[in-house]
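User: quick one
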Amino acid sequence: MPEAASLPVDDPRPPRKLYRSSDGRWLGGVARGLAGHLGLPVIWVRLVFVGLFMANGLGALLYAAFWFFVPLGIGGVGDHKPPLVATEASPGGRRRLVARKPDRGQILALLLMVIVSMVFVSSVNLGSAAKAYLVPAVLVAAGVALVWRQADNARRARWVEVGRRRRTLTLLRAAGGVLLVTAGVSAIFVLQGSAAHLGAVLQAALAVLVGITLLAGPYLVRMTQDLSEERLMRIRAQERAEVAAHVHDSVLHTLTLIQRNADNANEVRRLARAQERDLRTWLYKPEGTGKDEADEPDTVAEAVRRNAAEVEDKHGVPIEVVVVGDCPLDERTSAQMQAAREAMVNAAKYGGEGGAVQVYAEVEGRTVFVSVRDRGPGFDMDSIPADRMGVRESIIGRMERNGGTARLRAVPGGGTEVELEMERAEKTS
Amino acid sequence: MSDATEANGTTGADAGGRHVRVVLVDDHRMFRAGVQAEIGQTAETGVEVVGEAADVDQAVTVITATRPEVVLLDVHLPGGGGVEVLRRCAALTADAEQPVRFLALSVSDAAEDVIGVIRGGARGYVTKTITGTDLVDSIFRVQEGDAVFSPRLAGFVLDAFASTDAPPVDEDLDRLTQREREVLRLIARGYAYKEIAKQLFISVKTVESHVSAVLRKLQLSNRHELTRWATARRLV
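Assistant: Done. Structure below.
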């Protein structure tokens, strides 16, 4: 069955409210919405509608009622991403052609429906008087449908970003709808035999319209402006509330801790720095809330910053990080990051008195360079006993095992600098 | 500088014969007070704070009225930010006789903020975590016409030039020389100018001139970008 892809998925949304489906729909999305709501294949629902349509057009009436009253929503049958709508669609290759442009498919369906109804109407023998009114009535209906569809699209644009160039299309549509309705209404007039007065009536109608526009226009413009302004304000207020919540949560908490630890300078400094860093990541990174510390970093810059933050927190020594460029982590650079972390720990432990530890990382082409520098007392490499593995194994050894180099400069009294250089692994990601 | 000493007549001889008149521009009163307390002891530091401002309009008024030698400029200010102050004081900055020099003093971590003020004509950038002595030092260096870069700014500059390096439009102007790059890297690694000089076997003056060259290129590359932008749109 070609509809297999659009069978309902088995996670029932808790509040099963009826929505019209905004994607993959032919007309108003009523059938898809209903199918999703009832847990039936769409084709069944559609067939039922067609069947009801045969019964004196009841189906059309029902469909129109649904269209009118049920709000447009996302989903309906299954949760398809918009591009997926393309391939699922329905029987026959015809729709697969228009797959990427669902709108055209919908217009086609609309036209098809109009034609079918025309055929249906002409084949059914109504009274000639009633029959005469049918064509204009259908015209009016088509016009109304066109305009209503547009309202749907405007709604859908809230979920699916619709480009600017669609504007002309919507304008065109509105104009088409109005034209159809006007034509239909005029035709009814003509049929009623009041064609002679048509001109006068149209003029009067136009005059009334212009009058209403003049009277209500400013209000309408004002209203839309107010509305958009209000929306903007609401978005701002929401953002402010979010900031306030964050500040409340973490900053106040930290301030309390600081008050409690007022006589412990190191603890206060540590808290303040941690809080500053947290707030910074939160402020200057739009999406990263700085709270999801749990997940592993996957780029060099992230890893350096994360390591520095952790060492800073643990040892209470400020670490200033400067990162130039970035690249994804691989095996080799991960090893380098571990070595860098070890170097930071050493710097914080033994060189922290001289001031902030400076970490500099640079990704240039295929080379990743990290320098960790402190202004502590420094040390003499040769004077370290052979059994002390910290520097030899964790830093130099680790770098060399992974094909990198490590250089140490430790001038007594002038601080220590560790330089780590590593080529990135061959495979590009 | 004669008017400076006369405005400052009571303080008498200043630290090491150095003297500089400074205007503080920052929208946080507490911060201004803190900086004032830390650098404002004219007798010890040689820095005299002649004016303060909290927003762009005030800043322009105060700077025009007092004609300081150095302005400590916050990047984020009500009324358009530090960039706006720089734009409106462009005539004073360009003045050949007694130029007003700007030193950005920022808490912001965002590269575009910092690069923005530097390109706007600020002579340097330091972070608000800087110590009082370092700040005084930076102020004097800026007064003498040198550029002051914090490690973070050096990182930003390297990044900025790395990203514009791909299409080498104007090699002479837009690109940093190998030496300048080296100097910037060392600044980013936390070296002081003196240490850089020792490391590269050059004089401190040479380091300073390299840094100034970087600053000039940063501004020039901005001008070139502008010209390119304008020509692309047939505005020129």
